[in-house]
Input
Amino acid sequence: MTHNPAPLSWLASGEAFPPVESAWGVDTVAPGLLCAGADLSVATLQKAYQNGIFPWFSAGQPILWWSPAPRMVLEVEQFKLSPSLKKTLKKFANDPDCEIRIDNAFAQVIQACASNPRPGAHGTWIVPDMINAYINLHHAGLAHSVETWVRGELVGGLYCVASGQAVFGESMFYRQTDASKIALAALVCLCRQHQISQIDCQQNTAHLASLGAHEMPRPEFVRRVRALCRQPALDWHFESLYWQHLFAFNSASA
Output
């Protein structure tokens, strides 16, 4: 049974976000919806992510801002590497025609994510205004792409937002089997290399849960994010030796 939520706040550009605790609850038609309006400038997006808020809206809708409770988070030490994915990753890591690139083709990655809707979704939430906003965020050094390349072809990848050492996963795509999972595993390796504890996954899905993600209370998530945002930014550079840390860790914890 759903209940009528509180009236939705409408923000002018530059206006502060309301407290995340005022987001609509689980018993409403849109759990986690916080407010609408404002803009998609770099400054607004940076402030939103630093406070556990992200934009998500479809074509024809105003800009909608969300802060779900609980929050889906992948703690990198809990990443589940299945035997089949481990075999795929080892084959990928040992093939000279296969490589992980960082920030080599950000625009291509986000455009590919926009053309590949999430399973069960109708259409895409990555509308043209969002694409342009995240490309601007990328140029500002606050959004990154992790890319799976095979024989010089981009076959999968993901993009994320990063502020300090807070990493927020956004969307993935693949053109070959497991190519998006390879990119996610590479992001996990990069985070482990820099002792970054978690990757935000926003909302709960069975796919994310199968990879080790779990729900976290929103107050704890926001507290962690604010602390991570105060840390120096990581070096967004991937080395093939990072794979060995992942294989060794999962062997030791198996």
